[in-house]
Amino acid sequence: MRYLADTSTVVRVDRGQVDPQWIETVKRGLVAVCEPVLAETLTLADAKQYEIAEERLRAAYPWVPVADNVWELVAAIRRDLGERSAHQGVSVADYVIAATAIRLKLVLLHEDGDFETIARFIPELKQRRISTLP
pTM of the prediction? Predict the structure, then answer.
């Protein structure tokens, strides 16, 4: 495993809105998801198809746990961004996803400017837009 996908990645891969090389990277099991990504992605699912959508996502991506002590890192990131007035727009899920990527030493794969903002001030966050080639 090399990447942790954000919701923006999962949705684009599901819709075929990414370069085929990324779809192949997902198929090879190199892109994982965690609970906040699953929860955010499933808000888009039809209620009648919710369980099927969850099973499909779990089958498509390796699963990684959110670290037990993630909230300490979330607080540190939040404070660091706040001191620089760079915290607007960053959701709780984004903080947890970024902290999980840092803790697990995965590259955060996204199409969300908030992660670029976090990475600008938190160099431990390695990130990449899915709109670039693998």
Answer: 0.92
- pLDDT tens readout for residues 61-83: 999 999 888 999 999 999 999 98
User: Per the domain annotation, does 134 fall within a domain?
Assistant: no
| Confidence at residue 110, expressed as pLDDT on a 0 to 100 scale | 97
SS3 content of the chain, % helix, strand, coil (to 5): 55, 10, 35
| Range 31-55 burial, b when 16+ CB lie within 10 A, else e | bbbbebbbebbeeeeeeeeeeebee
| Residue 30 in domain | yes
As for how many domains the chain has, the answer is 1
CATH classification of the domain holding 113: 3.40.50.1010
Cα separation values, 116 from 58, 119, 120, Å: 26, 5, 6
